[in-house]
Structure formats: structure tokens, C-alpha cells
Amino acid sequence: MQLEEEEQIKIIVEAAAAAAAKVNTEAITSATGPNTSTQAAASANEEDDKDKEDDKDAKKKKNRCGECRKKVGLTGFQCRCGGLYCAVHRYSDKHNCTFDYREHGAQEIRRNNPVVVGEKIQKI
Known about the structure:
Layout: H1 2-32, H2 37-60, E1 77-78, E2 84-85, H3 101-112
Antiparallel strand pairs: 1-2
Organism: Drosophila pseudoobscura pseudoobscura (Fruit fly)
Pfam family, one: zf-AN1
GO molecular function, one term: zinc ion binding
């Protein structure tokens, strides 16, 4: 029991040391690097713009059924074709699914069962 606790403590200490070393090198690089204050401000503005765009995308996305546009909330079903569907349209035959289940199954069989070729028998 004691050995397990000591091993866990060692792992935590090593991880903390590695994180501290990484922060140290980043601080040194940023302090001595070619970045000027205007470049840093420009990069900060670009990051803010990206964050705002991500927020807009998150607000735009609604959880609605791809077939009937009904709100699905947390009970939506993600299909292999990439769509989100309600309980009625969750099956592939109910929403004109574009995913090729037959080809997917054939690929899986090919992957799990490689072709075995026997050695040729020499004729006398």
C-alpha cells in the first residue's frame, strides 16, 4: 500500500517538474524572442477574433432533427452519415441516410480476415 502511494507521489512530482520546466522555457523564449509589444497586441487581437467566431458558431448550432427540424435537445441521435436526428428519424431507412453500411461492413470483414494464400505444391 505504501509503495503504491510513493509511486503516485513520484509521478506527480515528476509531472510538476516537467510542467515547471516547460513554463520556464516559454517565459525565457517570450522574454528574449523577437516579439515586440505591437506584435503581441496584434496576436492577442487575432486570438480574440477567433474566440468571437467560435462563440458565434456555438450560438448558431441548434440541436434539431435533420429531417423534421424538431428540437431534440439532449436526446438527439448522431448518425454515421453525420446528421442529428430525433427518435422517429434515427434509423437509416427513415432519413435517407447517405452512409454505405454494406461497404463499411465489407471493409471491416476484409480488415479482420486477411487473405491467406497457401504455398504452391511442386509437381513431380
